[in-house]
């Protein structure tokens, strides 16, 4: 698991860690029961504060992506398929809003967009 932090990002460091680990879990790269790096080890690897890493892990646990076993570490939680589905739906909605914005700029109609989507589906 590689986590890359960007000083240019508008997202705080703990948010970047949260988002990247969450994406690893949703994509299946991290599976149920996989152990995450310890808070201290991750902080050391990323050269950031332990407090920042702990905050990211706390938020991941609060949202149900990971769980902590006292004295043992943090692990990927069982996937809540409804939670993952909601996450994907939110991402799709975001992409659709961007498509809508770009379509207006390009003066595309609803039918034009549907036709583009149909062509893309046939290509796959």
From TrEMBL:
Cite the InterPro entries for this sequence: Tscrpt_reg_HTH_GntR, WH-like_DNA-bd_sf, WH_DNA-bd_sf
Tell me the ranges covered by the HTH gntR-type domain, including all copies.
11-79
- What's a Gene Ontology MF term here? DNA binding
Q: Which UniProt keywords apply?
A: DNA-binding, Transcription, Transcription regulation
What name has this protein been given in UniProt? GntR family transcriptional regulator
Please tell me the species this chain comes from: Acetivibrio mesophilus
């Amino acid at each position: 698991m590689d986590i890359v932090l960007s000083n240019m990002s508008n997202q705080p460091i703990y948010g970047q860690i949260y988002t990247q680990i969450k994406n690893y879990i949703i994509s299946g790269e991290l599976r149920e029961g996989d152990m995450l790096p310890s808070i201290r080890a991750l902080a050391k690897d990323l050269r950031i504060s332990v407090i920042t890493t702990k905050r990211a892990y706390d938020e991941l646990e609060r949202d149900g992506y990971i769980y902590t076993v006292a004295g043992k570490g943090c692990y990927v939680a069982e996937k809540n398929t409804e939670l993952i589905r909601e996450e994907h739906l939110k991402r799709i909605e975001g992409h659709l809003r961007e498509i809508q914005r770009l379509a207006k700029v390009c003066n595309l109609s609803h039918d034009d967009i549907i036709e583009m989507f149909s062509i893309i589906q046939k290509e796959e």
